[in-house]
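ARCHIVE CARD
Drawer: 12
Card no.: 0347
Subject: one protein chain, sequence and derived structure
Cross-reference: see card 0346
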Amino acid sequence: MISLYSIIFNGMDATPIDVQVQLASGLSKPEFNIIGLADRAVKESAERIKNVLGALNISLPPKRLTVNLSPADVEKSGSHFDLPILCGILCALGILPENQLSHYLILGEVGLNGTIVRTDGVLPASVWAKKHNMGIICPAAQGGEARMADHTDILAPNHVLELINHFSGKLTLDVPDAPTQLTSTATCGDMADVHGQESAKRALEIAAAGGHAMLMVGPPGSGKTMLASRLAGIMPEMTAEQILETSIIYSIAGQLDGRGLMRNRPFRSVHHTASQVALAGGGANAHPGEISLAHNGVLFLDELPEFNRATLEILRQPMESGKIMISRAKNTATYPARFQLIAAMNPCPCGHLGNAALSCSRAPRCAEAYQNKISGPLLDRIDLHVDVDAVNPWEMNTASDAPRETSAQIRARVVAAYNRQIARQGCLNARLDGPELDAAAKLTPELQNFLNTAAEKMGMSARGYNRVRRIARTIADLAGRDALEMSDIAEALSYRPINRGKYGAVIK
């Protein structure tokens, strides 16, 4: 019996698969069976492999060929089993050396002519292989992706013949080079491009520094999308661990494309027609959704009330836990989902609430119905609520001599505040809770009385109360202060809605 190794992923968890191949005598013609709870894509490997063998002028003997994928109680899916099964058969036929291939983790889809084509999950497979002192065999197009795990024992052939010739000594496959191109999911503009909106810029700075969720409410054309798209540009750079973790998620999702590690923070802008599966993840293979693809980055939801309410409610648990569990009938997968939510919305369907000349005849009743599409518990989880007023045309005069802060200038303050948080508590202020929050955001009796009085008047929930403390802590960090001051609490309270004034009632 031949025994080689491949791998499957359940969320971020890897399970090695023992690909066992056995030729049994006693038949007048070849028979090919794949067992071990294999799905249709895996079972179709038999036909692809038969054609590849025919293209290589290799005939199967008149024996029963059985491929067992162990452990048998774990469902196997994906076309990446083509290559390990084919290698196992070639070992059984004496064409490839089992003693050498058993050292490798093998994955790749095989075309009918023997070419080895792309598959998902090469980067996390390479990480796993290196950790367990194994080499990896993968498609040539993804050799650079495997190399990004700082792994060097890599074989990346274009064709099955290259693999055969390598082990026969006729050819030497070189270790692929790691790609030098940096992968980015978005192009960040500069904050200096934004005219006016100083209060919104300030809120974005606080959001970036402390990892806080933010909601912008304002009429069409006020610059909400423009502001949101620039958030990633003022956030601190990702750590090496975050870069690798984010890149692994994109590799599993098939969106890394071998271009390089995800060195820039993701910015995922989701259309309001997105389904629950698109947002949370799932499907037959429990692939990551938008909230996991936004891990360590920004999840931007424009036109928030236009989203299906059930879809939005999916956000509540991941916003608190930083991960999401996808449960399906056949398997359960868990993905990280430590994203920063930035949402935007018009105050009403027409978008012009507060402008008597443009608003509809149903104002302000239409605003209440429109904004009530978003549940109170979800809104309560959003730290910063900001009104974004329309910009006057004369404020956009490019000839203005008034200097505007660049993203680099704002980012310098954000990074300094970020470093203070990491040095003090090891995490961002948005994640503080319980004793850690009490220690980081100590309140004097005067501040305690002030906050208690405000919370009572605003009808604030316990969750909202703690969010005010977290925001105040971030404001103090941006100012470089260890102790909270009255101004920090007051500014933090301004971002918690009691009512929306000209933009209508939202939440207490």
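Annotation on reverse: The chain has 21 helices and 18 strands. Residues 413 and 441 are 20 Å apart (CA to CA).
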